[in-house]
Specification:
The complex is a heterodimer. By secondary structure, chain A is mainly α. In chain A, about 50% of the residues lie in helices and about 0% in strands. Helix content of chain B is about 45%, strand content about 20%. An 8-stranded mixed sheet of chain B has the order 3-4-2-5-1-6-7-8, with helices on both faces. Classes of the chains: A mainly alpha, B alpha/beta. Chains A and B meet through helix 1, helix 2, strand 1, helix 4 and helix 5 of A and helix 4, helix 7, strand 7 and helix 8 of B. Strand 1 of chain A pairs antiparallel with strand 7 of chain B, so a sheet runs across the interface.
Chain lengths: ~220, ~270
Amino acid sequence: MRADRISHFKKRLRQGADNFEFSALIDGVSTLDEPAQSESPIAPFVAGMAALLEEQTAPAPVRAPDPPPAELKILVEQTDFDIFVAPVEVQPDPQPVPSRPTNAARQSDRLRIALCDLSAYLARHATGLGAALDVYDAAGAGEHLARLNHVLDLLHSVDPDGEQARQFEIEGAPPAGRPWPGTAWSVFEFAESPFSGLLPGDAGQELVQSMIHAAWGVSPH
Amino acid sequence: MKIVSVVNQKGGVAKTTTTANLGACLAARGLRTLLIDLDPQANLTLGLGVEWYDLGCALNNVLLDPDETPLASILHPIADIPLYLAPGHLNLADCEVMLMPAADRAYRLRNALEALTETQRFDWVLIDCPPSLGTLTQNGIVASSHLLIPTEPKYYAFAGMDTLNKMIVSLTKGLRFRVELLGVLLTMVERGTRLHQTIAQEIRERFGDKVFETVIYKNVRLSESEVEGKPIILFDRRASGAQNYESLADEILQRAPNDLQLRVSNA
């Protein structure tokens, strides 16, 4: 590399690296000296393109999502394509199944419970996404979208064609012959997603772009 | 006992190669070393000559059913050195989903290691984390006292470590653990490439003495040793890759706390 190119490259590299933060890595972290908290899963956060971490879900019966706004319900009913994350009444978690003698049976039961939780989580955040879009809250919509995407990644890893969820008769399972929706990390992907049906009628591309940026954890400005 | 997660959500930066070969170098010095394959790809397991698809039980069983499958029950000795492997398995991929309802899902590996050390002593535990920031990697980080971050000297390395930094900060909001950076290891470095040198220099300026002096250069014998199912020091001790990892082990042991150094010097 010529000297002038090297100098330019170094400058660009330094400018780019200045945008990043490494203090927790360099200094280390410790929460052992803090007052004991409940040993619960971590709080949620949105971290751009990295995998997102789940909101705490207790192993107790699944909480039904908040009732959707009336406008959302009408919008859902009017769409031509399936939105299998439409507001549905989530049934309480079924009674724990007694341990069965085989590993396969235990595995199957775990999968059923996990799919049930994930589907309820999906419904909850789809409702949140719709509510945020209704009031043009791009940041809020982005946060819900990011969590939806993470859950969809998990669903695709264990039940890509939705068949397991249908066999277990999970509420919110994809219709017959349809897989779980794909993730939507770009304007194009969101346009192809059933979640695009939650956009207000007069929503412009700017709202979608801002939402996508928020989901990635990057400010558009 | 030092428990080190070898972590970077970017794939192909030599996490598995580093875990296997650093572990072998430590074991060759007489230190009882346990390698844990936390990656559903199970490359560490394959690379050490253990065929995960023939295994009845592996790490996924330990995480999901620790009472039925304690960690001690799945350990495999490797070669004639005090090196042991807790093998991975493709079914680890299901753990991300299966563990979701569990309140203690991030603590499963730590709990399993605590139970193991009641009956077996190890000097070093190296955890090969998957190239992601999900539940499995969280288990690795929460179980660890240290992190070792292999990274190529590329611009994306900064973005990756920034994301890892964010993840660790978020973990502090709900979990009880302590972890510090053992070091950043530059890997896959091409000799004489000014681009690599420039980026490596920038990484050193950002991370200071946390970056190891040792650099792992690209070396085809490292890949060959994985095909043979052996660590590089047992496959070809004269290869430059072997010398790189021996040098890394020396550097890590110099950074080790005094009690460990005393034991090594008195051996």
